[in-house]
Amino acid sequence: MVEEAVSGTSLLKKLRRTERRKKIEAVGLITPLFVLMLIFYFIPIGLMLYKSIDNSQMREIMPHTARAIEHWSGKGLPDEPVYTAIVEDMKVAYPNRTLAKAGRRLNFDLVGFHSLLSKTGRKLRKLKGPPYKEALIKLDKKWGDPRYWTVLQRGLKNTTLIYLLATLDLRYDDKNNITHVPDEQAIYVSIIGRTIYISIFVTVLCLVIGFPFAYIMANATTRVRNLMMIGLMLVFWTSLLVRTLSWILVLQNKGVVNSILMWAGLISQPLDLVFNRIGVYIAMTHVLLPFMVLPLFSVMSGIPSYYVRAARSLGATSIVAFFRVYVPQTKPGIGAGCLMVFIQALGYYITPALVGGPKDQMLSYFVAFFVNERVNWSMASALGLMLLLITGSLYLILGKHVSITNIKLN
Amino acid sequence: MALPIHASTGERIWYYAFRVICGVIFIFLLFPILTIIPLSFNAGEFLHYPLQGLSLRWYHEFLATGRWAVAVKNSFIIGVSAATLATILGTIAAVGINRTDFPGKQLLVALLISPMVVPLVITALAVYLFYARIGLNDTYIGIILAHTILGMPFVLITVSATLQGFDYSLIRAGANLGASPVRVFFKIVLPNIIPGVVSGALFAFAISLDEVVVVLFVAGPSHRTLPRQMFSGIREHLSPTFLAVATALIVLAAMLMLTLEMLRKRNEKLNSPV
User: Fold this and answer.
1) Angle at Cα B29 formed by Cα B27 and Cα B31, nearest 5°?
2) What are the φ and ψ backbone dihedral angles of A180, each rounded to 5 degrees?
3) Residue A1: is its pLDDT beyond 60?
4) Which of A7, B8, B65, B73 has its CA 20 to 30 A from that of A217?
5) Residues of chain A with pLDDT > 90: what percent?
6) Residue B54: helix, strand or coil by DSSP?
7) Across the interface, do B246 and A377 touch by the CB < 8 Å criterion?
8) Contact check, Cβ <8 Å, A26/B102
9) Considering only alpha carbons, which residue of chain B is nearest residue A28?
10) Which residues, including other chains, have CB under 8 Å from residue B238's CB and lie 6 or more apart?
C-alpha cells in the first residue's frame, strides 16, 4: 500500500478519483433543486411555448373532418365525404359544447366561423342526409364558400402559426399566403414597439438620475454615503405595490405635486400626471432606479481618484477630465445597470396597469388580458413567446459583455 | 470630494449645483414613501393633504377587517414556506456548485438563476397553464412552489458569496475526524455560511411577500395575499386603510433591511483576515 501511494501513476489515479468523487458530490447536491425547477419551471415554460403553436385541440374536436380534409386539394369545394365527416363531428361536438370552442378558434382566423358553426349546430337535427353537401349549403351558403374550407383545413393541422403571425400583425389570406392584417386591426407590432420604447425611455431616465446619485454616493463622506445607501435600500425593499400606490397619491389631481405647483402659482389647473404615460415613466423610473444605482456605485467606489487628478494636472478641464477619463471607467457599471433596468422594464406589468392609461400598457398586460378576459391561452402564449424572445436575446447578446450576477445584493 | 481652494467660479457653481441636483434626486427617491406615512394617520377619509387631524382609525380598520387578516395570514404562510424551501434547496445546491468545476457549470448556473431575468408574467402564465393540467391552480402548494422558484436564485447568490470565503479543507478535516457528511454540514459548513443563508432566506421571503403577478394568475379567491388584495383594491376602491397597510409594509421593509445590513457586516467580519 505504501509503495503504491508513493508511485506517481497511482497518486494521479487517486487524485482523479477524488476529483470524480467531488464532481459526483456536486451533482448530487444540485440535483434536488434542479429536479424541482425542471418540473415546475422549465417544463411549464416549454409547454407554454408549445401552446403558442399547438392546435391539437381542434383535431380532438373534429377528428373525422381532420382526416377527411387532409387530402382536399384546396381547389373548389371538398367532396361529399368531407361534408359527411363534419356533420358527424358536429353531432358529437354540439351537445358537448366543444363546437363553440372550435368556433371561437376558427373565428380567430376568419370572422363569421363562430356564428356559422353555432347556427349549423342548432339546426343539425333537422338536417336531411346523407348526402350532406347539398343540405349544408342550403342551410347556410357559407358552407359553399371555399374560403371557409381553406380556413378549416388550415385549422385542423397539428400545429398552427396563426397566433405567432397575429403577434406580428400578420395573417393568412384566402390563398394561404401570409399578408398584413388591415390597418385598423394591426395593434400588436405597435404594442411591441411601445414596450421597447417605454423600456428604453425608463432606462435613459434611470441612467440620467442614477449616475449623479451613484457618483455622489461613491465620493461622499462615510456619513453621507450611509445615509444615501439607507434611503436607497429602504426604497428598494419597500413593496412594489406600496410604491406604486404612493405615486398615485402623490401625482393625483389633489396630490402633493399638484398642490405645491398650484401654491407656487406655476399652474392654475392641476396637471394630469397619473393614469397616463407621464405617470408610467415616473413610477417605473422610481421603482427601477436602485437597479441602476447599485451596479454604478459598486463600480464607482472601486475607481481610484488619481486618474482624474492626473488628467487635470496634464491640463484637462474638469469637464474633459470627467467625460474622457472618469466616465469610461464606469462603463461596466453603466452596462450592468442599463441591462438590468431595461430587461426588467420590458416585462413590467403591475406598475403600468395601475398608473397607466389604456394606451400605456405593455406586452405583459396583454398576456394577462388574453388569459383573464379572453380565455385565449394560445394568443397569451404567443405574446409570451415574443416577450421571452426579446428579453432572452437581449440577455444573451448583452449579457456576454456585462455580468448581472456580479452585482452585490446588499 | 471637498471643493479645492483653487477652484474657479464655474467649478464652484457646478459644485453646489451638483449637490442641489443630488438633493432633488434624494427627495424624489424618498418622496412617495414619506408622503404616504403621515397620510395613513389621517382622521378624515380623503386621500390627500391637508390632514384632518390625527387618528389610528385606519389601522383599526386594517386589523379588524377579516379580508385583510386573511390576506396577511396567506402572505405569511406562503412567504415562510416558500422561503424555507428555497433556502434549503438553494443552500444545498450552492454548496454543490461551489464544490468543484464541472462541464456545463456556467450554463447550469445561468439556468438556475434565470427566474430572476425571465419576465414574471411569463413565469406566471407557464405555471398557470401547467397547473391547469395537474390541478394545482387555487392551491397553497402551487403558489408556494412558484414562489420557491422565484426566490431561490437570491439564496443561490447570497450563499455563493459567503462560500467564496469558505475553506473547503475544513470539510475534509471534519470527515477525517470521523464526522458524517450531515454532521459536517451542520457543525462546520452551516455555521460558516449562516449570514449568507439567512440573507438569502430574507430575500426569498421578501420576494414572495411582494409578488403579485403569479398570485394573480394562479391563486383563487381564498388564497389572496396582501399584494393581491392591494392590487385589486387600488384598481377598484381605494380607501385610507390601504395607507395603513402600506405603512406597515414599509416598516417591515425597514426591518428586513436593517437585519440584512447587520448580516452583511457580520459576513465582512467573518471573511476579513484577522
Assistant:
1) 55
2) -75, 145
3) no
4) B8
5) 29
6) strand
7) no
8) yes
9) B96
10) A245, A248, B47
Q: Where are the domains of chain B?
A: 67-271
Q: What are the tens digits of pLDDT across the range A270-292?
A: 888 888 999 999 999 999 999 99
* Nearest CB to B102; choose among A23, A235, A243: A23
CATH classification for the domain delimited by B67-271, as one of 1.10.3720.10, 1.10.10.10, 1.10.238.10, 1.10.390.10: 1.10.3720.10
pLDDT digits (tens, 9 = 90+) for B90-124: 999 998 888 878 888 888 888 898 898 899 999 99
Chain A CB contacts of B17 under 8 Å are none
User: Does A22 lie at the interface with B, CB-CB under 8 angstroms?
Assistant: yes
Chain-chain contact of A33 with B102 (C-beta, under 8 angstroms):
no
Query: For the segment A18-31, what is each residue's pLDDT rounded down to a tens digit?
Result: 888 888 888 888 99
For B91-106, b/e burial (b = at least 16 CB within 10 A) is bbbbbbbbbbebeeee
CB-nearest partner of B121 from A32, A231, A384: A384
Residue type, A34: F
A363: nearest Cα among A191, A199, A193? A191
Q: What is the 3-state secondary structure (H, E, C) of chain A?
A: CHHHHHCHHHHHHHHHHHHHHHHHHHHHHHHHHHHHHHHHHHHHHHHHHHHCCECHHHHHHCHHHHHHHCCCCCCCCCCHHHHHHHHHHHHHHHHHCHHHHHHHHHHHHCCCHHHHHHHHHHCHHHCCCCCCHHHHHHHCHHHHCHHHHHHHHHHCCCECCHHHHHHCCEEECCCCCEEECCHHHCCHHHHHHHHHHHHHHHHHHHHHHHHHHHHHHHHCCHHHHHHHHHHHHHHHHCCHHHHHHHHHHHHCCCCHHHHHHHHCCCCCCCCCCCCCHHHHHHHHHHHHHHHHHHHHHHHHCCCCCHHHHHHHHCCCCHHHHHHHHHHHHCHHHHHHHHHHHHHHHHCCCHHHHHHCCHHHCCHHHHHHHHHHCCCCHHHHHHHHHHHHHHHHHHHHHHHCCCCCCCCCCC
CA distance A139 to B62: 62
Which stretch of A236-240, B10-14, B115-119 has the lowest confidence by average pLDDT? Answer: B10-14
- Of residues A212, A346, A353, nearest to B21 (C-beta): A212
From the list A346, A354, A409, the residue facing B234 with the nearest CB is A354
Cis link prior to A130 (omega < 30° from 0)? yes
Query: Nearest chain A Cα to B256, which residue?
Result: A237
